[in-house]
Design a protein that fits this description.
This protein is an alpha+beta fold. The protein has four helices and five strands. It has a three-stranded mixed sheet with strand order 3-2-4. The protein has a two-stranded antiparallel sheet with strand order 1-5.
Amino acid sequence: MVVNRLPHAFGVSRFPRVDAAHHALQALARQNQLTLSTVVIGAWAILLSRYSGEHDIVFGVTSSGRPAELKGAETMVGLFINTLPVRVKLQDEESLVTWLQRLQREQAEMRQFDSSPLVQLQGWSDVPRGRPLPPACRSMLRRPVCWRRSAII
């Protein structure tokens, strides 16, 4: 049954500066054969670097966790998400585009670990068990989402 619980809900608001920034980031990605996700991960790494004063940054990135090779994955119901640690090294001698292209290659290599449990990842790392995980985490949807005015119950 479809019920419209909020008759005046969910108007569309536009923010010209946000739209302009989004279009600029999309253009940067497109011109340099990068994904928007790579550009956002890079921007987040730069921001964390600036605030922390460190050039070697680790933070969590959430992925869909649905392996492409899993037969029928697109028809399965439930969460497959996983948060993987991402280590980003910022080097002053690299141009922004070269660095982002390297970051994208590293992200592609990381996809093989999308379904690895955190305890296994910790076992592979040099970080001692029991040490707190990095508090910085970001999520980026890799598929378009359509929000509807009505709720399904």
